[in-house]
């Protein structure tokens, strides 16, 4: 049964909402540099949840500054020099709300003085418009300083999505926002809604500096090296200096048990009503556990698709993911804390907001988290591990336990039209050392041209001579998948190079999550002991020392789609999924959307370092791009030059420049009937 919702928008940030009856919906995003804690009249500081100009010393008799005009971040007084890359001078950027089937036009003006940019529409279907997907040098040339790019695509499917820069670390410096597609059918139950975006913040410098610090040997505080953060299970995160967590761009800097009193985001509710919260994870690195004091959360959606309701105390959201939950405002009138905490056990970071009931004064909540006891265990959805330590009294609801309301059957393997791949997202290195970020030992290197529209100019590709079972290489790694195939991918996080969990995002497709395999954990402590033994990493035979570049199933009978224990009906649909340290995730999807699609870890520091691969899907069937689409390239001298001319000639076949994966085009009848049913159900109106 479908969950029918028509949702009214409530937020403190100025949003753009299209007329539901319009066929074309057009708006703009102006990209600027801004400063945190800075007003038109100068720097401001935080005191007891309010803001005051720096020259104010008597706050009791002074008027506070309008918070809506300030990007506060964590309110740190010294952060007035912290550069923010903003859309329309807000942090996050303005929510964009459109309706299913509308033609969306968004003019992105890059007003930065020194940086190029591009915008990815995360999770939005780009069928027939792959050049609008956004990643630079994959589907388009970057938007240079002073330039404008007009994104134009059809809004589909309805759900919770978001937009963000795909250039360097701009997303982590503030360039992102919510992108909501409402159903076009209006005869649905009306609920008010809130958008909630949870992310971490460094108030001293941007994440580009973290990359440089890591290359230079690490980050130091008072001459002491910052140790890597450690998740429950003892998987290690990439060092990233985090001072605070933010919800909708607001949070507090904590020092021990005290904080700086910066203002928090407020979500207003009325007793007796229900509200839908759309939660987005635009963060840099960490998964967050989200809860609301003294309120249960009913999970009703994941990555844009409605799910069968599941009641939980909290849920985990990683970078790139989205979850929808319904909150019943059924508690006594007052204020309650909305909480998000990282799973990190060494440097736990928290983000807070206020749930304010109508009739209650806006004050600091005195509420407390739900108590998890042996007789009343807390339910947590989407844990990146099989269980919490026994003494924490928490039960995990795994992603494979969620069901989509579409109730789609998992497509069966058909001989000749089923392909499976193993992709290991890790940091393998030589002699047991940590190496660069890679997929199957291949560190992704961006080209200097748009791969989609300039395939004849692509650089050197990966070869078997350079890359292999126990080898590392650097190249533009790509995988060719053919039209009408059912694709099964097993995302791994295993072998000598496994560290933290990886939120893996696939552009161009939603996929069915049909199985998750976790590593072997200690039930008492929750510590990871060893990799899951369902997978044979091959290569180095020493336990834990294989690079896991050419993995397969330990039991060969699992090949060809015969994996036991998969979800057969109603598997949750996702475009971003946490691949657990020491484990794997099996996904399936039909190859029905021709394009060049980026597949990468959504931790930007990992993706930028090379943890990515390009999916070359049915290149010959990609529609011709619009005339005038920019080209890019390098100038290499008078006799060698990349073609940067503006030509509308047909695109040469990308397949001429990648390692091909050929197989028969036969056996279509049975497959196409199954596939047609799958696609119709997949994109029917929710």
Q: What does this entry show, briefly?
A:
The chain has 686 residues and is mainly β. It folds into 3 domains: 6-185, Immunoglobulin-like, CATH 2.60.40; 195-401, Cupredoxins -  blue copper proteins (Immunoglobulin-like, Sandwich); 418-682, Cupredoxins -  blue copper proteins (Immunoglobulin-like).
Describe the structure.
The protein is mainly beta. The chain folds into three domains: 6-185, Cupredoxins -  blue copper proteins (Immunoglobulin-like, Sandwich), CATH 2.60.40.420; 195-401, Sandwich (Immunoglobulin-like); 418-682, Immunoglobulin-like, CATH 2.60.40. It is 4% helix and 35% strand. Strands 1, 14, 17, 18, 22, 24, 25 and 27 form an eight-stranded mixed β-sheet that branches. Strands 21-29-28-23-26-30-31 form a seven-stranded mixed β-sheet, with no helix packed on it. A six-stranded mixed β-sheet has the order 33-32-37-46-39-44. A hairpin with a 2-residue loop joins strand 17 and strand 18 (250-251). The protein is globular and about 75 Å long. The relative contact order is 0.12. The model is unreliable at 1-12, 644-652 and 657-676 (pLDDT under 50).
